[in-house]
Amino acid sequence: MSERATAQPTATERASGDVLAVESLSAWYGEARVLTDVSLAVQPGEVVTLVGRNGAGKTTLLRSIMGLHRHVEGTISWGGRELGKASPDARAKAGIGWVPDDRGIYASLSVAENLTLPPVVNKDAWTLEQVYEQFPVLHERRDFPGTKLSGGEQQMLAMARVLRMGSRLLLLDEPSEGLAPVIVQRIGEIIRQIKAQGVAVLLVEQNVKFASTVADRHYLLAQGRVVESLDNDAFQSRTTELLEYLGM
Amino acid sequence: MTAFIQYTLQGLSTGGFYALSALGLAVIFGVLGVVNFSHGACYMLGAVAATVLLDTLGLGFWAALPLVTLLMFVFGVLMERLLVRWLLKLDPLYNFLLTFGITLVLVDLVKRRYGVSSLPYQVPAGLEGRIDLGSLSLSRYQLFVSVFSVLVCLAVWMLLTKTRIGMIVRASTEDAERSRALGINVGRWVTPVFGFGIALAGLAGVLAAPFRAVNADMGSNFIIVLFAVVVIGGLGSILGAVVAGFLVGLVEAFGQAYADRFSQVLIFVLMALVVLIRPAGLFGKEEAA
Ligand SMILES: Nc1ncnc2c1ncn2[C@@H]1O[C@H](COP(=O)(O)OP(=O)(O)OP(=O)(O)O)[C@@H](O)[C@H]1O
Ligand SMILES: [Mg+2]
């Protein structure tokens, strides 16, 4: 799969492969509407970020795609099929991998169990050996309780877990948050590697500098609306202006 | 010293009932998000069933132990399928109320059928009397209950830690929503886990029958202490439930020995202390605010 640098996918790309397409999605918590008419698409092998300040609705969007947040209107389709009322586990089995903002590592499971808990849903999923090769520290600590790892290691574990599942779309919720620069860099490398394997990545980020080093395109989210959609070059040249606009 | 050992044994045997039942409560709460108020009534039902099996079919303790456990599993499965299931999507309070209602119905049905006075149940053959070791005299049955419940807890522990099903139950107990998002069909495990939790309460009831007064009300005090156990161990923690179960049993036994009327109070003092120092319980996960 080739890299995409264009801001909008072409019609043929849209028709083929594991494409995520969100159309006019709105979401509520009770009476409060937190997403309004959000539309976006992510192609295989493409890294797309969702940038926005605290409370913009980024996590809610990821949770809606995962089927965890149900109070929504609009459509979400994956691989050409509308997800509708599909359960979160059905979505995961269809190849959507969730890496939550709190990393979601189980304290009552060992590192190895954290990795092997999810079912393998794809034949070209990473094997456990591949995971350990890529992340030697997870091998070293495989019998430790998952939450005994450092924050950065937990982040690696959370990402490795969905790669071992064989997810074809990764929903990454602020993976760089609270981590040292060298670890953030490592996460960047992993994202590029995943991308090279044709996996689609929807990356929620507040670390704009980091976002611009890995992403092909960006959506800016403010108060639950997509206010701008632009490719990485445009994003980089207008960063200061855009951040000011977002109030970040 | 001999008194100390005797109280310890007594504590471990009562602790065994608490640990087994709290273990059931913990897996049910973890996987379904239901606080099963009827757990005490199920414990009572287990004990009553043992006496009824003896009276009507002449089946003694050793037959009752597996049979009642199995019957209570079926009872739990039916309860989940017919009632609990329908409220799972609503606020957890609804299932709390439902199981509270089930408790009232079960207790009254037993009262109606078997009256309010205690039903006699013998200590099983082979476990009567005491073992004398010099100045130390230990109840054979208490010894049996202590060892047996530790073994059952260990077996459940092995099941939970060494099998894939156990791994799924642990993961779902810790965070059911996250497990769903990782491709686990948590719903499939809901019914067997509920039945399993109820079966453990029933098993505790059978074990209690020979040395607790068996009557319709025996579960009402039990459930209160059980909630204290769960709070002390940490809601949703499986290891916490077991450790706190034995701990509370010990506190109760020593309380009865040295501070008779205050033994119940001591349990709640312990609970208050734990909550003050570790609000999530001894093994509970501290929630990030
Ligand atoms: N469970 C909830 N109940 C009610 N309102 C909520 C809930 N979760 C989030 N919100 C509100 O919805 C809005 C969007 O929240 P969301 O968590 O999606 O934002 P976010 O962009 O991920 O923010 P952050 O950068 O802080 O993670 C916020 O105003 C938030 O207060
Ligand atoms: Mg968020």
What does this entry look like structurally?
- The complex is a heterodimer of chains A (248) and B (289).
- By secondary structure, chain A is of the alpha/beta class.
- In chain A, 36% of the residues lie in helices and 25% in strands.
- In chain A, the strands form 2 sheets. In chain A, strands 6-7-8-3-9-10 form a 6-stranded mixed beta sheet, sandwiched between helices. A 4-stranded antiparallel beta sheet of chain A has the order 2-1-4-5, with helices on one face.
- In chain B, 74% of the residues lie in helices and 3% in strands.
- Chain B has helices at residues 2-32, 39-57, 61-87, 92-114, 140-162, 164-174, 176-181, 186-208, 218-233, 238-258, 263-277, and strands at residues 130-133, 136-139.
- In chain B, strand 1 and strand 2 (136-139) form a beta hairpin.
- The interface between A and B is medium-sized, with 26 and 22 residues.
- Adenosine-5'-triphosphate binds at residues 29, 34, 52, 54-60, 101 of chain A.
Mean pLDDT of chain B: 90
Rough shape of chain B?
Answer: globular
Per CATH, what is the topology of chain A? Rossmann fold
Ligands: adenosine-5'-triphosphate, magnesium ion
Count of domain modules of chain B: 1
Main interface: chain pair and counts: A-B, 26 and 22 residues
Ranges of chain B where pLDDT stays below 50 over 5 or more residues in a row are none
Helix content of chain A: 25-40%
Q: Give the count of structural domains of chain A.
A: 1
Order of helices and strands of chain B: HHHHEEHHHHHHH
